[in-house]
Amino acid sequence: QVQLVESGGGLVQAGGSLRLSCAASGRTFSRYTMAWFRQAPGKERESVAAINWSGGWVYYADPVKGRFTISRDNAKNTVYLQMNSLKPEDTAVYYCAAEPGRRTSDKSEYDDWGQGTQVTVSS
């Protein structure tokens, strides 16, 4: 099991940038596939990006391709989400999640979740 704590959310104007961080506890962090999901009010939680243990596999949802970048630092037990060119439709609570090894963007495959961090993009 991995404990996850997100940070870096906030209020930003459209076109701006934010970097989210997710700090993980546990000695086996480097074995996990890590992912970011988001949930807007009244909508289902959706995948945003995912990265495998080595960074050799990454996934991006179509709405964020070319604007968001997922990365990880296994020495710091941290995964990041750099968000550029933000749009009002990116407004959501962003969650970090961990899966022990499988390359997947399916939220049902993830067992460990953080509490989420709010991202609000004003127009």
A few lines on this structure:
The protein is an all-beta fold and 123 residues long.
Note down, in words, how this protein is organized.
The protein is an all-beta fold and 123 residues long. Helices cover 0% and strands 48% of the residues. Strands 2, 4, 5, 6, 9, 10 and 11 form a seven-stranded mixed β-sheet that branches. Strands 1-3-8-7 form a four-stranded antiparallel β-sheet, with no helix packed on it. It starts with a strand and ends with a strand.
The residue ranges in which pLDDT falls below 50 over 5 or more consecutive positions are none
Give the class from helix and strand content and strand pairing: mainly beta
Strand count: 11
Q: Please tally the helical runs, counting DSSP H or I stretches of 4 or more residues.
A: 0
How far the N terminus sits from the C terminus, by CA atoms, comes to 39 Å
Query: Which range best describes the helical content: under 10%, 10-25%, 25-40%, 40-55%, 55-70% or over 70%?
Result: under 10%
Biggest pleated sheet:
7 strands, mixed
- Strand-and-helix sequence, N→C? EEEEEEEEEEE
Rg calc: 13 Å
What best-fitting shape do the alpha-carbon axes yield?
globular
| Beta-strand residue fraction | over 45%
